[in-house]
Amino acid sequence: MTNAKYHIEKAKSGRATCKKCKLKIGKGEIRIGETRKGEDFDMVSWKHAKCFTMGRKLVASTSPPLTVEKFLEDVIGDPDNLLEDEDMFKTVLGDMLDAKSSGVGKRKRALVRDVTDGDTGIMDVAREIYAKLKKSQRIEPKKKRKKRNDDGEEEEDTSEDATEAIRNEVQSLSDSDRKIVEYFIFYNDMTSDELKSFLRWNFQMLSGTKDILVERCVDGEQNGRLGTCPTCEGGRIKLREGAEKVYCNGYYDEDVGSRISCFYEDDVVNAARELPWFMEEPSEEVIEAITTARKNPNLAKNESAVEESSSSFANLALDLKSKVGVKKAASQILEICRAKNVDLPDDEKKATVRIGRILVQNKSIISGKEIFKIIVSEFGLKQSKEEKFKAKKSAGEGCEVAENGPLFLAIKELSDLYFKERNTNAGNTYRRVSEAIRTLSFQVAADNAKGLCKGKTKVAGIGKGSADKMYEFVTCGTIDKLEEKRAAHQ
Ligand SMILES: [Zn+2]
Ligand SMILES: [Zn+2]
């Protein structure tokens, strides 16, 4: 055994910095502490669970070597019994395996695979060209020296041949592949710290080996910054090693107070992107604009709705001193809210009560426009029919089989509603099911739905309850549970 001790917990404050990625560990985020005995006191260093990889000594501390799963089951201290929760266990395990896969072990496997299936990605081509280029640059001066000694014209030719061959190889590539090679040469010449600066300026992950840092920079400059995950709408999309796939493993939701798992994975060409790729540190204003837009993608729309509403409020006198006055003000404001498409409950009475509550809570604010602003920020705006259609269409298209689109959306909505009521276990379960549906290669129908949870036709992530709900959806067009949750959240 090593002399270090490990334990896992939800961060009690937001003050600690992750020793791996150097970012702050937010309050409530899952972190792993490594405690080492010091002379006077014990030293604890913290890492995000997703940044934690087991050191060589730790792996070698048992025979057979310690696996991540065994580490979580037997070795790590868990004073709050976090890992008793099956979903939490799976999330942490997934995060740790991801962290591991960007390390050394995976690299070796990747090389073996390339040799066997001969399917080399453009990043590997770029890496090869880079190596050849550096080799020819190293050789050339030597050859020249040799030439002075014994006038060996032949050798001089070989080195020119080498550069010529590389040039030809680059020229034979498609325009976009050629760009990738150019970017690769540009970034691969940098140190890890320089690469991290680029990644920081572009809000990308900073952890991992130099190879993956280079790949992230090359991919980012070629395609734009990786954006927000389309599945959980909260996590950031990340690049897998090899730069052919992207994935998301979820995010910490401050409102729900827990980590939301996500199982999104897609080809790199389908990833959501943001432009531009910053080649220098963006200004504070730019950073602020990007972070606010990300937190609330509808902010700009909300702001313009508030501006447009100015005239409607011009002649509105709010009397909030009496109950009657509040009620009257609430129904007047409701009318404006309806006209402006604020996403309030459809039920008149419920909506009036909600507005009334906001009015009472903000008695000191007398401007109708300010009150409207608060209401819009709380409820948001309804999506227009066109927007809804577009969102649904793209979600359906996101499925491997487009016909599974409606089922995918129904299960995802169920998951969202569970998260809304802070039932993260159920939320995560259905999130996993919706992701499984998204990647299914056949259409779910009445005759195969129930088989998805058992036997040879079992699909990972789908249990009996979920299979029954999928059967219900494909036969009845909806799911009772979903209707029930929808009604409760009206
Ligand atoms: Zn970290
Ligand atoms: Zn996600």
Outline the structure in words.
The structure is a single chain. The protein is mainly alpha-helical. The chain folds into 5 domains: 5-101, Zinc finger, PARP-type (first zn-finger domain of poly(adp-ribose) polymerase-1, 2-Layer Sandwich); 108-185; 201-274, no CATH class; 299-379, no CATH class; 385-488, DNA polymerase beta, N-terminal domain-like (DNA polymerase, domain 1, Orthogonal Bundle). It is 54% helix and 8% strand. It has a 3-stranded antiparallel beta sheet with strand order 1-2-3, with no helix packed on it. The protein has a 3-stranded antiparallel beta sheet with strand order 5-6-9, with no helix packed on it. Helix 13 (323-339) packs across helix 14 (348-361) and helix 16 (385-397) packs across helix 17 (405-420). The two termini are 55 Å apart. Bound molecules: zinc ion (2 copies). The site of one zinc ion has 7 residues, from strand 3. Residues 18, 20-21, 23, 47-48, 51 line the site of one zinc ion (ZN). One of its GO terms (cellular component) is nucleus. This is PARP-type domain-containing protein.
Largest sheet: 3 strands, antiparallel
**Would you tell me which CATH topology of the largest domain applies?**
DNA polymerase, domain 1
Bound ligand species: zinc ion
Distance between the termini: 55 Å
The CATH architecture term of the largest domain is Orthogonal Bundle
Radius of gyration (CA) equals 28 Å
